[in-house]
Fold each of these.
Amino acid sequence: MEVDILFFALYRELAGTARMRMTLSSGCVVSDVVTRLKAGGGGLTSLPSQPVVAVNREYVPLSTPLSSGDEVAFIPPVSGG
């Protein structure tokens, strides 16, 4: 199955792109995407092990199952005053 991965702000800079497509095996969950991104080398090795993630525009836990065509967005922490 294929999912679209979106990166925002700092994560976009670490990934070097705002978007990518990833092919996964059936039965994968969000944490599998995190593991694969961290293992892929480059800037995403510094991705936290528990990032804030949304699937199809809804915040979800890392244990959320994925389906073909899902959009997985990585949202970095925001600070401000």
Amino acid sequence: MPSKSYYDSSLQPIGFNLEAAKQLLADAGWKDTNQNGIVDKNINGEQVEMDLEYLATPGSRFANTVAEILKDNAAQVGINVRITPREFRAMLGEEVARREYQLYAGAAASYQLPDDFFPVLHTASNTARGQNRTQFGTPETDALIEKIQTTMDVAQRDKLYKSFQRIVYDEQPMIFLLSPQERLVISKRFKPQLSSLSPNFVVRNFVHLQK
């Protein structure tokens, strides 16, 4: 969260740039050699097209809208995205648990305690039941996560957080799309303490101001 002391504000959101995306694909060897609109690459002697399956929750209008937007944007740079309806819990228990997927969408909740990345981004959590579903991690990132867990000095811990954040920013193990915002309307008669957690104010500290 940007409100936390270890948030690195020097890391700007990655811009939407189709031409830059095309160049990155070309630099990695993905080019449309047969002029059919889909980039391809020779892998082990076989010409392979960039064709990705996107597992989308069928009952979620939001999830399917995101999937359609991604499919449309990907097509503009020569990537074919196939949207496959898949119930979320079943998907997590099968394709995602086996790490046999290419794309799927998820969400993460924030909390006010110092962030612990062990469950989501440590290699020890890359198991069928673990939450490191992107299989992200190196000895360097594992060491940073472990040091963050045990460093009590706030200033020193903040430096570790920022070092870890820069690596995640460069590697992009997940495509960070958005953080939704909600408008909170409260009468001037009250003085709330705002919170990033639902219902976005601290209920126990809700003060009623007398006139």
Amino acid sequence: GEMLRPGADVWDLERVETALRALLEGERYDFVFVLAPTPSTHGAHKAATILALRAVDGLPVDARPVVLCGRSASREEELGGLDPLDGYPITKVRPGPGYTFDRKQRFGYAGRLDYSIVVNWAIAEHKSQGTMQLLMNRGETEHYDIFALDVPDADSRTRHLFEALALPQYPVVEPPDQPR
């Protein structure tokens, strides 16, 4: 039988892909971040990832952003490699170890803040998806793989990004000395 296109029964796929491509052409992004399309990923998120990949694939090679797919994990968790989704070879990722961002990287007043706060803000915005709330404060790292689309210098561009993200982004502000 004919393979069902992702989101075909919910979204106007052509319109979404056209709008994404127009946005990518107009803004000239360096990177596009999407959720890793694993078998356990929610169907709408898989469809969004596939549509983003198709939009990027429709751009001239020299105008393409690097597309990174992310997964969160605990420090102890071993993440296996990502296989392409059945029937969607566009979801193939490049071989290699990928890149990791430490959500527990400290910043702010006396180094009391970390990036898990920002993640919790995003989770709080998913009020219609109650199970997202169960993920608050979980996952100390984010792991990213590069999709295998033809993108010039994808590996070096991504390496530079993650090297920059590993540097302190905000100064650690120490509390002023208190009078005795």
Amino acid sequence: NIAVDNYLVWMNGRLVFEDISLENVCQQLNRLYQIDCRFDSDSLKNLQLTANFSDDSLEKTLSVIALSLDLAYRKENNEVFWSVIAF
């Protein structure tokens, strides 16, 4: 189970995602940081992420995810809103 493995890794200061959908990434972030994700489009949920974080804050983790997937995000209280970057 990827979520259980990531929880154990997170307890040691690391977080690993290997070709996981943004929706699943958000589910794991919810378990670890008690945040909920909202998406401007359902297609964003299917974006795939591969990343490895070590002792990073939630804000830095969200920033790296956004940069990796070419997305924008904003955090309000315990919610993260994902959207496509407008040019």
